[in-house]
Amino acid sequence: MKLKITAALLLAALGAQAQKIDVAKSIKSAELQTDILVKNVDSARKTKPNQVSPRTVEKGQLKMVVSRDWTSGFFPAQLWYYYEFSKDKKWLELAKKYTEDIKKEQFNRATHDLGFMIFCPFGNGLRLTGDTAYKSVIIQAAKSLSTRFNPSVGVIRSWDHNGDKWQYPVIIDNMMNLELLFEATKFTGDSSFYKIAISHADNTIKNHYRPDFSSWHVVDYDVKTGGIIKKTTAQGYANESSWARGQAWGLYGYTMSYRYTKKAAYLAQADAIANYILSNKTTPTDGIPYWDYNDPKIPNVSRDASAAAITASALYELAKYSKNAKRYKAAANKILYSLSTAYTSKIGDNYGFVLEHSTGHLPANSEIDVPINYADYYYIEALLRYKGKFNF
User: Is 225 buried (19+), middle (13-18) or exposed (0-12) by CB count in 10 A?
Assistant: First the structure.
């Protein structure tokens, strides 16, 4: 089902620049939805206790995932944000409960997504409670992630699957997992984590970005020479197209990397990516992009609210560092207002997910125009950042 241009959507598009976001109202509404989601999750886990987190709605049904799924950490991390905002002990206990379910993934060396899986819930848990047990999990996860770094290539390997397609694939999403490494160096004083993160970020600037500062999705490296075999896509429209969520991952990733390093190159990269995103002519007036900026079927294709939420959250942080702060805040406000007024589920719909109209993997005909847990997580984060509550 494609997003229909409703009166609320038009209001969002026309009024976002001037309207203020009612954060308390938006988070309260999200909490009411999440109360419903928690009940549905607990019900689902009675029959399949190994499925720990809600991911999406698939064919009209709630889809749960096991802890090793790359999205498993977003649900408990979202609960931590509710606790941060409300100080309601209910959210604290729920956040602790669902965070604990993912703890074993600290030893998982088969994924590059440990930043999402571990740092989002455990990092927020540590920040809000000071529980040093969370710090130990983060450090171990960083050690596990570090095993996926190949010095001859200089980047962290993303996927181990489809060996017939690529030799050493690295996806732009991987920039998001560097925060785990930066934090591990802060905790331990061991600079090896930091150096791996820097190497990955530097080589991603060099190899993942086009002259217009759009990003390829996948770069395949030759492990013997360190050279590039090919640049391609897995989740975008075409190899040369700009997959919307990929652009958002890069923006967020380089903004975050600048926070930890204060390297001018990372701030410049984040500014350039932001300009690409905000200058794109295919993005509708409400600020919520189509799933890929270059899909020739635009406007008759699905939006990606998750890309919008990630972008808004990143722009609020980037505004703290950049001379373009006014532009970034205005753009983030427009996106957040649109999400809050025209992309939220009605209370009780979608099993309790907050946002509608995200796109996960359109080429695989998977998760098209549905709620997705990471859209909700970054939406709540963006609301907190709008309010001046920064999780860094």
Answer: exposed
